[in-house]
Amino acid sequence: MEIEGFTKVFESEFARCYVAPERGIVLCNMKVGYVPILNFKETFQVLAEEVMKGGFTKFVFDKSSLKTFHQPSMKWYFTEWKTKMLEYGLHKHFKVLPEIDWFKKSVEAARKPLLKQFPDEVLSKLRIEYFDTVQQAIDAE
Which domain, by its residues, includes 118? Predict the structure, then answer.
């Protein structure tokens, strides 16, 4: 998967990560149906290093290949990684989910209690949206 205007910064058997610094976008494309939490965190550490360089405001998270909703990974991503990246200006989180109804329902079910636990001052700074395609997420302002 190559994306015009993006540079690949990391690839493993689980994910591909890209950046478009001039557009302020970091993109993560999950390649497989399930990502073990240690590999998930490794991928997001690479992304964090890119975000900490500065100038990134949008994260496109392509989960369309996932077949398993792993709650501990997603909770860590939401409560720890996303909060830390907000400190560096990353506030738009645009996601592409798999075309699996139960996966989408799992996301919504897990998201509701997390949102209730999250401080309003953090939530008010985040913009979280869902898109049908990666290109739609990239093009969205």
Answer: 7-139
